Amino acid sequence: MKIDELYQLFLDCKAVNTDTRNVETNDMFFALSGENFNGNTFANEALQKGAKYAIIDDEDYRRSDKTILVSNTLKTLQKLATYHRQQLGLKIISLTGSNGKTTTKELINTVLSKKYKTTATIGNLNNHIGVPLTLLSMTNTTEIGIVEMGANHKKEIEFLCQIAQPDFGYITNFGKAHLEGFGGVEGVIQGKSELYDYLTSNNKTIFFNADDNIQKEKLSQYKNSKGYSQNNTDYYLINLLKANPFVNFKAENTTIQSNLIGDYNITNLSVATLIGKYFDVSINDIKAAIQDYVPTNNRSQIIKKDTNTIIMDAYNANPSSMEVALQNLNNQNEKNKIAILGDMFELGASADTEHQNIANLANHLNIDEVILIGENFIKTKTENNKVKQYRSFEDFKTHYKPITNSHVLIKGSRGMALERVLKLL
């Protein structure tokens, strides 16, 4: 079936779905397969649950005219998403980076929603499946789409750009994330910069951090770039006022108080403000949007529990984000500061060095107690009694002693699931 024919069927459906557990009446179900499962086997179940059509790529599972056979369901999903994006003709803002993608995406969405009908990536559905699903969730009422793009190897962002065809873009930063897949920090820079490469080659607009030397060097001569800075009046000026614990800043002589902790969040707040300004959102509406935004999903959340104040930042971690989180805890004017840290994944040959670096940093900062959890952290060498090491969460749980009247940072990679610590606290 040609993509334009499939598109007409799509327009008669309520939504696109790839998981039979979530199928609703009049959905279009795509039978995507993985390494350990054949998605075609779920097609009939999707139809029984109310799906209007099931898109399959194995003729053996064709049951009726409601099962649409294509050569490859994943490629068809991606082509349909691009076709839909072209038919809508709306503005697409894409963003990527090592840290802060989801928070930045949510801030941009919150700000632009003050003036426009927006559709943004849900959660972190930012890969070769999530990006098409985000595009297909947009409707003819959507005025601006905000698409988060994730990657763990080179050429991935380039591929996602071909699907989403963004008009605007932003890279949060270049950090030590997915070093195993990218082959080192230089690989991270090259891989993330594929977004800027796409935008410059198509004469599209780029937002950037003019205080980041890498970004400034790449973009200062590009005429369709819009930068922000904390000290250079050639760019949109943002002044960080304080971050103890919440970030307060000034833009256009307007003081804005956020609900985000850590001075590292100033860049996320700055670009949301800049993009709002670019799209003619008033500074008062930008202020209201940012001050109403409260982080969720274990991303820099402040949680009060009994006598403890918890910085819950356990959604994910890499050496760059771990370092700034520890520095933020160090800078807090609080008594009895505790860091509970879990292993960082996908670091490849750098894993031992990077975990030791974090252990060394935590040991030397003004933090009263450091708890290291995981197979990588258990191998690190420590210098004094304030550092405690556990091979696993279960090991930590077994030896856990009650923590009270403390300011506690919880951070680790997603696979460590350190949100479980909350139940102990």
Automatic annotation (TrEMBL):
Pathway: Cell wall biogenesis; peptidoglycan biosynthesis. Residues 299-397 form the Mur ligase C-terminal domain. One of its GO terms (molecular function) is ligase activity. Gene3D superfamilies: Mur ligase, C-terminal domain (3.90.190.20), Mur-like, catalytic domain (3.40.1190.10), MurE/MurF, N-terminal domain (3.40.1390.10). Residues 96-274 form the Mur ligase central domain. Residues 15-61 form the Mur ligase N-terminal catalytic domain. Its EC number is 6.3.2.10. It is found in: Cytoplasm. It is an enzyme of class 6 (ligase). The keyword Endoplasmic reticulum does not apply. Its main location: cytoplasm. Involved in cell wall formation. Catalyzes the final step in the synthesis of UDP-N-acetylmuramoyl-pentapeptide, the precursor of murein. HAMAP family: MurF (MF_02019). NCBIfam families: murF. This is UDP-N-acetylmuramoyl-tripeptide--D-alanyl-D-alanine ligase.
